[in-house]
TrEMBL record:
Gene3D superfamilies xref list: Nucleic acid-binding proteins, P-loop containing nucleotide triphosphate hydrolases
Gene name in the database record: recG
A single GO molecular function term of this UniProt record: hydrolase activity
Family, similarity comment: Belongs to the helicase family. RecG subfamily.
Domain Helicase C-terminal span(s) in chain numbering: 485-650
Entry function: Plays a critical role in recombination and DNA repair. Helps process Holliday junction intermediates to mature products by catalyzing branch migration. Has replication fork regression activity, unwinds stalled or blocked replication forks to make a HJ that can be resolved. Has a DNA unwinding activity characteristic of a DNA helicase with 3'-5' polarity.
Alphabetized SMART domains for the sequence: DEXDc, HELICc
Domain Helicase ATP-binding, first and last residues per copy: 292-462
Source organism of the structure: Cognatilysobacter bugurensis
Catalytic activity, reaction form: Couples ATP hydrolysis with the unwinding of duplex DNA by translocating in the 3'-5' direction; ATP + H2O = ADP + phosphate + H(+)
GO BP: DNA recombination; DNA repair
Keywords recorded for this protein, A-Z: ATP-binding, DNA damage, DNA recombination, DNA repair, DNA-binding, Helicase, Hydrolase, Isomerase, Nucleotide-binding
Protein's name according to its UniProt entry: ATP-dependent DNA helicase RecG
């Protein structure tokens, strides 16, 4: 890197507030601000994640499931129905003599009147397998007149992430106005020329103009695939900014002091008292923790371990070191049920050794809460287990030396830091003594992804299950085999076992722009299934849990199931995380083809936790897309979370949305780790050099790409 740019003193233009744009009144500005979009620069970087290719018409016969396309055809039939909610189906046909169904869940009378047989429609959307061939849910469409036939757009149309309260046309217009004010390369560019030349990538200015306004002669397949040099240029800068921000956090962390924890006497006593021996992997990871803990610098470690690999006991062993030094440890879990499970385990393991374990969750209130807070503040509570209630303001630790966080991806980085700030003195200045931190996740992440997601953490892996587990037997069955399963549940429960029946989203609800829609339909599907199964299985105690229940109601049902008072639990995917009911040995997942691999694996992890042979039945609606078929096959072939994660990465094409949820990485604007992982080593190299030689440039990159998102996250 021969020449490093120096940050210009002022970046006035990019910082211009959006109200400076014609047509952006205070109301619109407020909606944009709610998404972290405050300045012109924020709009420049509000990048299209997709394009609609309106430069050509695809014959209906040539449509492929999962591949967005523009089609044109005449309305052949219109049908209104009611399945879970009002539905409008419009069949169109074209010269390829094939039929495509357009399906709408929201529609007005005027719209219905528009769809007269014979009317010519031009639509755009992603076809999916439906009941009778392909269908598109909520396509964008318009009625076209005869003289418009064959008149097509000349370039790709960018599609921007939807923003509540700001229509797509308005958003497009504002982004256009912001782009009109894009400054010169000299003012905008932060990456060294030599680097760009070496990588053969355009300047930031050129790249932004290309992705927002693809020229008519642009490389269309490249843009659609997200591999155009302009996109790669932006992806590199975005990945760089994310990496720099994580590195910066790590450096800041390491500048703090921590109490060295070296006394392993209590850990040895616990290990002797356990009813089992640690697996090799558990022992190795515990050794890695010991090596971190004995330093006067805060540990920052992520323990990855597949579901059931035994992370809790490793956390308990680490906690004993804090206790042995007369200090405190805290263990935080994302749900009350999980936290309670940890509490029971830790009490069973630690109290016989004389360790005082306290419990702090949202439902601990009044006098009980005051007592716990007092015990925590005086140091009488040596290990404190709880939910995010642990991070609330009134909670003051006497001397927190170790913070343990379970199921990390459910918490953001910020929450993790909040628990750290509960450390001795509560200070965050450079001289502050902060707790060691250990985060645990059951979501295995391929190495490359872990590097991107957790650049601020060291990573340990428990890659072995305790002995004696029998792998879950998995089969995939077409939905028509459903009746056989009722019998199978009856048999399993007659043997004293328990079963889960998981209902997943049946219709495409993402497209309606209201995130609660999915939850509602899912809950409704679960309700219907619950009623059906209850009447088909009169001898069984059937329970129901879904996302629309209040947390307390959910907990109550889960507890009944855990206590064995419910035989069959009909549930939505809310049961995905961490719940341990070893007696449950059968799981049926409906519409399994709709779920990503990571989620299927998490769900399946709810069975196979005891010694009985467990099974998982993946029910699917034929026909399966190629991608869905491969996912189900992977699930049948392996129980290994890491193999599944690798396969997931391989399968995930651009546009598949698993990424964010799976890794807990704050949503990228453009980068897609499935597609762009190969860029990471290069990005890391550039990052190290920038941190060394041009820290202010690093600073500006982080502010440019992440500043807005952080404001959003903190809002
Ligand atoms: P996870 O890693 O999914 O959080 P848990 O910590 O809940 O797994 O452990 C799953 C079960 O395995 C628990 O019942 C735990 O007591 C048990 N377990 C943990 N380690 C071992 C071991 N080395 N041998 C036998 N059983 C173990
Ligand atoms: Mg766990």
């Amino acid at each position: 890197m021969p020449r490093v740019r120096h940050a210009p003193a002022l970046i006035a233009l990019g910082d211009t507030p959006l109200t400076a744009l014609t047509g952006c009144g205070p109301k619109v500005a407020e909606k944009l601000a709610a998404r972290g979009l405050l300045t012109l620069q924020d709009l420049w970087l509000q990048l299209p994640r997709q394009y609609e290719d309106r430069t050509k018409i695809v014959p209906i016969r040539a449509l492929q499931a999962g591949v967005a396309a523009q089609v044109e055809g005449r309305v052949e039939a219109v049908e209104r129905g009611f399945r879970y909610r009002p539905t409008l189906r419009v069949a169109i046909g074209d010269d390829s003599r094939a039929t495509l169904v357009l399906r709408f869940f929201h529609f007005r009378a005027a719209q219905v009147a528009q769809f007269r047989p014979g009317v010519r429609l031009r639509c755009y959307g992603t076809p999916r397998p439906g009941q009778n061939g392909l269908e598109i849910v909520h396509p964008s469409y318009r009625v076209i007149e005869d003289d418009e036939v064959g008149v097509l757009g000349s370039s790709l149309d960018p599609v921007y992430p939807a923003i509540e309260g700001v229509g797509p046309a308005m958003l497009r217009r504002l982004i256009g106005l912001a782009l009109d004010r894009l400054p010169s390369d000299e003012e905008l560019e932060l990456l060294p020329d030599a680097l760009l030349a070496r990588l053969g990538l355009p300047s930031l200015r050129d790249a932004l103009l290309t992705v927002h306004r693809p020229p008519a002669d642009a490389d269309v397949p490249g843009l659609l695939a997200g591999t155009h040099p302009a996109q790669r240029r932006l992806v590199i800068e975005e990945l760089l900014a994310h990496h720099l921000s994580l590195r910066r956090q790590r450096l800041a962390q390491q500048a703090h002091a921590a109490h060295a924890l070296v006394d392993t006497a209590l850990a040895e006593r616990l290990q002797c008292a356990l009813p089992f021996a640690l697996t090799g992997a558990q022992q190795r990871v515990f050794d890695e923790l010991l090596d971190d803990l004995r330093r006067p610098r805060p540990m920052l470690r992520l323990v990855q371990g597949d579901v059931g690999s035994g992370k809790t006991v490793v956390a308990a062993l680490a906690a004993t070191l804090a206790v042995a030094h007369g200090r405190q440890a805290a263990l935080m879990a994302p749900t009350e049920l999980l936290a309670e499970q940890h509490l029971n385990n830790l009490r069973a393991w630690l109290e016989p050794l004389g360790v005082r374990v306290a419990w702090l969750a949202g439902k601990v209130t009044g006098r009980a809460r005051a007592q716990v807070l007092d015990a925590v503040a005086r140091g009488e509570a040596q290990v404190v287990v709880g939910t995010h209630a642990l991070m609330q303001e009134g909670v003051v630790f006497h001397d927190l030396a170790l913070a343990l966080v379970d199921e990390q991806h459910r918490f953001g980085v910020h929450q993790r830091l909040a628990l750290r700030d509960k450390g001795a003195g509560g200070g965050v200045g450079p001289d502050a003594v902060v707790p060691h931190q250990l985060v645990m996740t059951a979501t295995p992440i391929p190495r490359t992804l872990a590097m991107a997601a957790y650049a601020d953490l060291d990573v340990s892996v428990i890659d072995e299950l305790p002995p004696g587990r029998t792998p879950v037997q998995t089969v995939a069955l077409g939905a028509e085999r459903r009746p056989e399963l009722v019998e199978r549940i009856r048999r399993a429960c007659a043997e004293g076992r328990q079963a889960y029946w998981v209902c997943t989203l049946i219709e495409e609800a993402e497209d309606d722009g209201k995130s609660t829609g999915g939850l509602r339909i899912e809950a409704q599907a679960a309700q219907t299934t619950y009623e059906q199964l209850s009447s088909q299985l009169p001898g069984l105690r059937v329970g129901l849990v879904h996302g629309r229940l209040k947390p307390a109601e959910k907990q109550a049902v889960m507890r009944e199931f855990k206590d064995g008072n419910i035989d069959l639990l009909v549930a939505t995917t809310v049961i995905e995380v961490g719940v341990d009911v070893p007696n449950a040995s059968l799981m049926i997942i409906e519409n399994a083809e709709r779920l990503g691999l990571a989620q299927l694996h998490q769900l399946r992890g709810r069975v196979g936790r005891g010694s009985a042979v467990s099974s998982c039945v993946l029910l699917y609606q034929p026909p399966l897309s190629q991608m869905a078929r491969e996912r189900l096959e992977t699930m049948r072939e392996t129980n290994d979370g890491f193999v599944i994660a690798e396969k997931d990465l391989e399968l995930r094409g651009p546009g598949e949305l698993l990424g964010t949820r799976q890794t807990g990485i704050a949503g990228f604007r453009l980068a897609d780790l499935g597609r762009d992982a190969e860029l990471l080593p290069q990005v890391h190299e550039i990052a190290e050099r920038l941190l060394e030689r041009a820290p202010q440039v690093a600073e500006r990159l982080v502010e440019r790409w992440i500043g807005g998102a952080m404001r959003y996250a903190q809002a």
